[in-house]
Write a structure and sequence with these properties.
seven-stranded mixed β-sheet, 12 helices, Aspartate Aminotransferase, domain 1, alpha/beta, Aspartate Aminotransferase, domain 2
């Protein structure tokens, strides 16, 4: 992309944007606010607000418990079938349940049971820390012979495939990785890594939380065994929205849900004391789903399916390329470093910039410049591009705000103290 640094170039790109019409289908409460944190919490779809009113007022308020037989009971499977289209899976391989962490625990424990005699789980130091905590907990329950091996990144951006492959051997039960790294935005070659794990006889589990809704995924084509993901980032499902899990169809009846509950029972309303797992993906449910929050995932999924993930990804690449070009021209000269891959094929939909005063710069952006990015320690300012509603003009304005905060030393007004959410 040939890039000019003037605002006119950004306006020209917005005028040519074939996805521009989707922005009006999100609640934009303050048009002057530049929101570049959709990689952490997506904007509210207009239809989600309408759906919430209908669900609470009519379905719950009027229909009461009858709502379960009028659509609620099958919500987890119905929304899961739509999410399956976003991740390249069959409709009966994805279901909505619990949180990403709980789903991860379920699948890790199930994988360890399915690989007796193998005692090692492989991950990397780019993985989301909560995922690592879950791995450690599951391994502790599996017994003292089990251990976690964390492969180290040489540059904080990526882990070379050959380095990862060197850690996977006949003792490896499971390889568990984030497809898109939460700090740098670097993306693994899913098919290649999956093949490496399978050659060693290990199962693989991908966390696609920072990928789903931002790029096409091909879980089935890549022969992925297991995956988990959240719905409140690029899928725009709302704060704390339920997550989803994927289990390849041929593994459904070979894996056991370690947290058995009545919604995963073959005949849940018989209320027998003997647990009999349901057939298929439903066996990985546990307790009663959170109907209100689960239902509000669907409008965001529908918007992505309507837009088409190929078009979403194409715009994401163009916008993150543009952002990196602006960094090179306007921000690198004033001390910002690039913490994301330049190669778009290796990069998700957020760009991470580093600065020694990153936390104070982040606070100045939010509190003084009307720009909301987010911050990850020690120095990562993450700028999330959500193609359905992020404009080129917003990206240009945000970059100019970053430059102003540093050139005019506005960040010096703010202490480098941690807040609850950064």
């Amino acid at each position: 992309m040939r890039v000019r640094t003037d605002p006119g170039f950004a306006r020209e790109q917005d005028e040519r944007d074939e996805l521009a019409g989707f922005r009006s289908r999100f609640v934009i409460d303050d048009p002057a606010l530049i929101y570049l944190d959709g990689n952490s919490l997506g904007r509210l779809p207009v239809e989600s607000a309408t759906r919430a009113q209908r669900l609470v007022g009519a379905e719950w308020g009027q229909r009461l418990i009858r709502g379960w037989n009028e659509g609620w009971l099958g919500l987890a499977e119905r929304v899961g079938a739509k999410l399956a289209r976003l991740v390249g899976a069959a409709e009966d391989e994805v279901i909505v349940a619990d949180s990403t962490s709980v789903n991860l625990f379920k699948l890790v424990a199930a994988a360890l049971q399915a690989r007796p005699g193998r005692t090692v789980v492989i991950t990397d130091d780019l993985n989301f820390p909560s995922d690592v905590y879950i791995l450690q907990s599951a391994l502790k329950l599996a017994g003292p012979a089990h251990r976690l091996e964390i492969v180290r990144s040489p540059d904080g951006l990526t882990v070379p495939i050959e380095t990862l492959a060197g850690a996977i051997d006949s003792d490896t039960a499971l390889v568990a990785l984030s497809h898109t790294a939460f700090k740098s935005g670097s993306v693994y070659d899913m098919a290649t890594v999956t093949a490496v794990a399978h050659r060693a006889g290990a199962l693989i589990l991908w966390d696609v939380s920072h990928s789903v809704g931002a790029m096409p995924l091909s879980l089935d084509q890549a022969a992925v065994d297991l995956a988990v993901g959240c719905t409140y980032k690029y899928v725009n499902g709302g704060p704390g929205a339920p997550a989803f899990l994927f289990v390849r169809r041929d593994l459904h009846d070979r894996l056991h849900n370690p947290i058995a509950g009545w919604f995963g029972h073959q005949a849940q309303f018989e209320f027998t004391l003997e647990y009999r797992p349901a057939q298929g993906i439903r066996r990985f449910l546990t307790g009663t789903p959170s109907v209100v929050s689960l239902a509000l995932i669907e409008p965001g999924v529908d918007l992505l399916l309507e837009a088409g993930l190929e078009r979403v990804r194409a715009k994401s690449v163009r916008q993150t390329d543009y952002l990196i070009a602006l960094w090179e021209a306007l921000l690198a000269p004033v001390g910002f470093t690039l913490h994301s891959p330049r190669d778009a094929a290796r990069r998700g939909s957020h760009v991470s910039l580093g600065h020694p005063d990153g936390l104070r710069i982040d606070r100045a952006l939010i509190e003084q410049m009307h720009v909301i990015p987010d911050f990850r320690y020690p120095d990562h300012i993450r700028l999330g591009v959500a193609p359905l509603y992020t404009t080129y003009t917003e990206i240009h304005t945000a970059v100019m705000a970053l430059r102003t905060v540093v050139v005019e030393r506005l960040y010096e007004q703010y202490p480098a103290t941690r807040r609850g959410v950064t």
